Amino acid sequence: MKGTWINRALLAPATLWLLGMLVLPLIVVIVFSFGERGAAGGYVPAFTLAQYANLPARLTAFKNTLIMAPLGTLAALVVAYPLAYYLAVRVSPRWRTLLLILVIVPFWTSILIRTYAWIFILGGRGLPLLLDMVGIADVRLMNTSFAVLVGIVYGYLPLMVFPIYVSLEKLDKRLLEASSDLGALPFATFRQVTLPLSLPGVATGCMLVFILLMGEFLIPALLGGGKVFFVGNALVDLFLQSRNWAYGSAVAATLVVIMLITVSLYMRLAMRRAGQRDDVSLF
Amino acid sequence: MSKDYKDNLPISREEFIAQLRRYQKGSITRRHFLGVTGLGMASAVMAGAVPGLRPRKAWSAGDIGDRVVLATWPNYHDPANFEKFTEMTGAYVQVNVFGSNEEMLAKLQAGGSGWDVFVPTNYTITTYVGEDLIEPLDLSKLSNYDAAAFDPRFSDAGTVNGTLYAVPKNWGTTGYVINTAHSGGMTPTTWKEFWDMTKAEFSGRTMVHDYQLTTIGNALKYFGYSFNSVDPKELADAEKLLLDVKPHLYAINSDYQPPLRNGDAWMSMCWTGDGKQLNNDMPEMRYVLGREGGEIWSDYYAVPRGAEHRAAGYALIDFLLDPAVNAKEVLAHGYPVADSRTNALLPKELLEDPILYPAQELLDALEFGAAATLTDPNRAELLARFKSA
Question: Does domain B54-171+298-348 correspond to CATH entry 3.40.190.10?
Fold first, then answer.
């Protein structure tokens, strides 16, 4: 076949990158997960299933992650869709660029700083104080699942908005006209034309946010006060406090497996819903 | 170590004019000019010009690079001192803050921490030596360290097998701080009350450290066990208490000052200096040492194996050990020092402050952390289980 070596040369950097940065570390994690903890911490080579047998000790963390990740994805979608719709369909082109920039700009700021800001908003001198003024006393927001959810939606909003925006922008406006010519009310048009055509964007946005949320640890650490605990937090503790690399690797490997299963199920579902369209993809 | 007597003299006339010219020409900054001439001394935090704050030949002569990386604890330094250090040496102090010795150890074990100076607690040093993560100190680079000036109780952990690995920073206690505005003015006196109040009237308002030594240790105290216990049955009791209390906690976090200040939290496990800082700003904040006992500790400056900016690291330790600088540190962070030279510079009321210097019978009940407590895998796993419960 002609030009094979060019194809190979083009693929080489990406392949090397994937091998070095993804495949090799994953192999290390899997090997470590069958080992044991050293006396002062760290890793001692061994072949045991003890770490996997101990997984139930982190059941709560897995449960929290598997509840909060889909919930956070859904909440981000509910907030992002109307915004993306407005940006793509409703707003005049003159304002569109400015509004798009406004959505992007926060994304250029460190997630750490943006999340820290919520500590002040949700803390005793923030929203609860305002609520107190209007007569709703003793509201506690910090270190709750609600606080973590707010942080998640805020932090991941741009990732959800853009794929939806892109798919709505491609929407042929004549389809909407046709729909109303045929007597559909605005909502029916939305339900039967706009929404189905924007599903690829929704699928992509949900995928991006969901995958990142499965590994999230910063937002629950800052806004959950050690009480709303994700698998990510458990991993930080296992590597940085217990110094138990073997068990940490087993937890990490388990998380990867769970992610692979949920993501592939989701992709299959999304493909079927989108009627085998080939633009439903992460890549 | 002999010093030239000129080092302690104010700047000479010729030197002053020379520096003034340089400043006028724009080859040195205004800050640098004020620093070297001593004119900036008036704006120093402490009244009176302190000789020790003037740049010394030892530092001005050698170039120590542009930065030094310090791993330390929350609220444990006077930022003005770091600025001074940068002004004098040109090295910027990059600070990494930690919540537990475990985290420090984990970072060093993983390698590539990038630190030049770190602040280990007494009971961890033998482990660092055993794991070969720490360098013996070169005393010739620490002219401000005078072993005789230190109370051995708070300095002897720095020497392992006859080799000096660490020099004392501060000592202190681990108690708890309570906002008495919410307890009807009542100040409790025991760890038992701390845990019982958390389950009752202080529900949702208490914080514990994200740190196995103190959180488990003070839970053990509820039953009257040793703070350092690694006995499985005793640890099981402590775990049961922690799991009972968990729904009533505001947070598990070693950085507890912000929520205490903004009123979200009313009570928290607390180290001496934080207790002092909080009490200074809010007199209703009382620092309590549980009558059953708890922890007494001392922290040290040490150099990790393979420090990248070693010269800057030594310069920073030496600078912070200077009694005049150290005294400013104490005034800022409120942790006592075991250095008699520094104490001679501190105001009397600070040396008599019951937060820094608790009553003898309370001190007598306290225990130093033990190396076995740090490395015990069951304690590490217990805290992780408690957090992920």
Answer: yes
